[in-house]
Design a protein that fits this description.
Structural class: mainly alpha
Number of strands: 0
Number of helices: 14
Radius of gyration: 19 Å
Largest sheet: none
Distance between the termini: 30 Å
Shape: globular
Helix content: over 70%
Strand content: under 5%
C-alpha cells in the first residue's frame, strides 16, 4: 500500500509538469482528488489479481502504463485546455524557447531521479514472493543500463535532428529510458533493456519536437518522456519478454522474439488503448468542467509575476 501511495504521487507530479506555470493553485487540490480515483481504478485493472487487464496477462512491472502513461495523458488533457504559456508561441505560431532557470540544478535533479529509480523499479521486487536479493540486483541492472542507453540515444538523435548534442534532450533521454524500462525491467534480458533505452532516448527527442510543432506547450516534456516512452516500454514487452521471467511472475507470456506469437503484444496494446481512452477522457471531462465553472488558468498578470508570488 505504501508503494501505491508513492506511485500515485509520482504519477500526479507528471500531470503538473505538463500544466506548469499557468495553472491556478486550487486546481492542484481539486484535480488531485479526481486523478487519485482514476489512478486507483487503473492500477486495480493491471496490478490486482481481480483486475481485468491482469487476467488478460498484461505486463507492467512497476508502472510504465499505470504511473507514467496515465500521468502524461492527464497532463496532455490539461495542457490542451490551458493553452500555452504567455510568449511560448509567436503570432505566426513559431515556438519561442523559454530556457530552464538553472541547467546545473536540472542535471542534478535528473541524477537524483536516476538514483531514486532503483527504489522505484528494484524496490518493487519486494512485493514479489521469493524475489530475493538476486532478483533485486537483476532489476537494478536492467534499470541502470537502460537509462545509460537512453542518454546515448538522445544525444545521437539530437545531434542528427538538431545538429547539436542538446543537454536538455540528453537529460530527458535518461528519464524517457527509465520510464520505458519501468514496465520491462523484471521481464527482459539486459541486452533488451539496452535496446529499450536507446529507442526511448530517440523517441523523447522526436516526440518533444513533434509536440512543440503542433502547438502544445509542455514545459517539462512530460508528454514525450512519460507518455510516448511509456507506450514504447509497454509495447516492448510484447517483443522482448522472456518466457521464463513471465512464468516466474505469473503474468502473461513470452514476447514475439522468443515465442513467435503476437499474443503478448496484442494484450499490451489492448491495455494501452483502454487506459488511454479512460484516463484521457475522464481527465479532460473533469478539467473541462472546472474550466467552464471556476476557471483553471491564472490570469495574465499573475502568470507574468510568476505563480510562486501570485498563487503559491
Amino acid at each position: 500500500y505504501l508503494f501505491q501511495v508513492v506511485f500515485a504521487g509520482v504519477s500526479l507530479a507528471i500531470v503538473w509538469g505538463a500544466m506548469a506555470e499557468r495553472t491556478k493553485l486550487w486546481v492542484y487540490f481539486a484535480f488531485g482528488i479526481v486523478y487519485t480515483l482514476l489512478y486507483a481504478l487503473v492500477s486495480h485493472w493491471i496490478w490486482s489479481p481481480d483486475g481485468w487487464l491482469f487476467a488478460r496477462g498484461m505486463q507492467d512491472f512497476a508502472g510504465s502504463t499505470v504511473v507514467h502513461y496515465q500521468g502524461a495523458l492527464a497532463g496532455l488533457a490539461g495542457a490542451l485546455l490551458l493553452g500555452p504559456r504567455l510568449g511560448r508561441f509567436g503570432a505566426n505560431g513559431k515556438p519561442n524557447a523559454i530556457p530552464g532557470h538553472n541547467m546545473a540544478f536540472t542535471t542534478l535533479g535528473v541524477i537524483i531521479l536516476w538514483f531514486g529509480w532503483f527504489g522505484f523499479n528494484a524496490g518493487s521486487t519486494l512485493s514479489v514472493q521469493g524475489g530475493g536479493l538476486g532478483f533485486f540486483a537483476y532489476v537494478a541492472l536492467n534499470t541502470n543500463v537502460a537509462a545509460a542507453a537512453g542518454v546515448i540515444g538522445a544525444v545521437v538523435t539530437s545531434w542528427a535532428v538538431l545538429k547539436k548534442p542538446d543537454l536538455s534532450m540528453m537529460l530527458n533521454g535518461a528519464i524517457a529510458a527509465l520510464v520505458a524500462i519501468t514496465a520491462a525491467c523484471a521481464f527482459v534480458a539486459p541486452w533488451a533493456a539496452i535496446v529499450i533505452g536507446l529507442v526511448a532516448g530517440g523517441i523523447v527527442v522526436v516526440g518533444s519536437i513533434a509536440v512543440e510543432r503542433i502547438g502544445i506547450d509542455d514545459p517539462v516534456g512530460a508528454i514525450a518522456a512519460h507518455g510516448m516512452a511509456g507506450v514504447w516500454g509497454t509495447l516492448a514487452l510484447g517483443f522482448f519478454a522472456m518466457p521464463s521471467l513471465a512464468e516466474r511472475l505469473a503474468t502473461g507470456t513470452g514476447g514475439l522474439l522468443y515465442t513467435g506469437s503476437r499474443s503478448q503484444l496484442q494484450t499490451q496494446a489492448t491495455g494501452l488503448i483502454a487506459v488511454g481512452a479512460f484516463t484521457f477522457g475522464a481527465s479532460f471531462l473533469a478539467l473541462w468542467a472546472m474550466k467552464v465553472t471556476f476557471g483553471i488558468r491564472a490570469d495574465a498578470e499573475a502568470e507574468s509575476a510568476g505563480l510562486d508570488l501570485s498563487e503559491h
